[in-house]
């Protein structure tokens, strides 16, 4: 039986380029470990993992959610009494603009420290798992 290897892309995304190497390497090791684990599992388990990956939030989506939560919280707290909370809403807007213009923002750095993966990292694991399904028995 031919050994399936996990080939990592040669180029990095802006998100990966702005993430400490130690975190990128830890995420890569986790992807390799996940694929290694599923090599020994049934096709049904692999398909369930692929379905799970389809539902996994990538770093960009997580950051959008964080920024929206900050904006809503800031607005709500400002309406409840202290107008200084509008600064939180303004910060969330600034983070959204920075993310759109630079493909990086402080909340993205937080998401990466939390080991939230990029869309490409999720896709890499999914492709490797699909390759396992397509191997002859």
UniProtKB/TrEMBL annotation:
Disordered: annotated segments: 1-20
Highest taxon of source: Bacteria
Protein name: DUF2892 domain-containing protein
Bias-annotated ranges (Polar residues): 10-20
